[in-house]
From TrEMBL:
This is Ubiquitin supergroup. Residues 157-178 are annotated as: Disordered. SUPFAM superfamilies: Ubiquitin-like. It comes from Cordyceps fumosorosea (strain ARSEF 2679) (Isaria fumosorosea). Residues 6-149 form the Get5 N-terminal domain. Pfam families: Get5_C (PF17183), Get5_N (PF12754). It comes from the Eukaryota. Residues 168-215 form the Get5 C-terminal domain.
């Protein structure tokens, strides 16, 4: 049997099969079982409604609190309250340089790991297109990156301090270096830079210090 003959025979056999339901079939409603309707369970925690942002007073420029954070040496944190959204990133960079006693050209301002230029303003970073539109948040956080070659100016107290002799300024090594309190302070700063949490960094520093002291106490 050829393929064409087989196809014709198969189609003709399908045409002889009676259809179970016609195209205009409607089931009688009286024959349906009367059951209770299914109701979806309520949520355990209701969804919170979005909080409406207070609109700015007409004629007054919106302002935000700016937080400048540097996690590398030198580490510092600056909070600039009530900064107008028209403030430029250059002004923020100059404020960070004055606080850290560093050259302004050695600092870079980043937001969400994106480098910002001096010509940009807070309005551009917050995405405020309309004049007088309220900012989406009352605080914005920036990261400060210190480039290589930047040396912080010493405070007057440190500059007036006498210079120690070379024999006393030699760095200690081995167990003597670990016994210094500055070692654990530096370790805590390194851990804080990695984990980004003060409590976790302090806990890890305590664990390492206790383990070292218990090891040193063994005969």
């Amino acid at each position: 049997m050829s393929e064409v003959a087989f196809a014709k025979q198969f189609i003709s056999s399908l045409g002889q099969t009676p259809a179970k339901l016609s195209h205009n079939y409607v089931q009688d409603a009286t024959s349906l079982s009367k059951g209770s309707p299914f109701i979806l369970p309520s949520m355990a925690t209701p969804m919170s409604r979005p909080k409406a942002t207070a609109a700015a007073i007409p004629g007054e420029e919106p302002s935000v609190t700016v937080k400048l954070l540097s996690l590398r040496n030198p580490r510092f944190e600056i909070t600039l309250p009530a900064q107008p959204v028209s403030a430029s990133l250059l002004e923020l960079r100059q404020a960070a340089a004055a606080h850290a006693r560093l050259p302004a050209n050695r600092l870079k301002i980043l937001h969400n790991k994106r480098l910002l230029s001096d010509g940009q303003r807070l309005r551009d970073v917050l995405g405020l297109d309309d004049e007088g539109a309220p900012p989406p948040s009352t605080m914005v956080e920036f990261s400060v990156m210190v480039t290589k070659g930047a040396a912080a100016a010493l405070p007057e107290e440190e500059a007036a301090a006498p210079v120690k002799s070379s024999s006393n300024s030699e760095a200690k090594r081995g167990a003597e270096a670990v016994a210094e309190p500055q070692f654990w302070t530096d370790l805590n700063g390194f851990l804080l830079q990695r984990v980004k949490d003060e409590e976790t960094a302090a806990e890890l520093t305590t664990v390492f210090k206790n383990a070292w002291e218990s090891r040193s106490a063994k005969p």
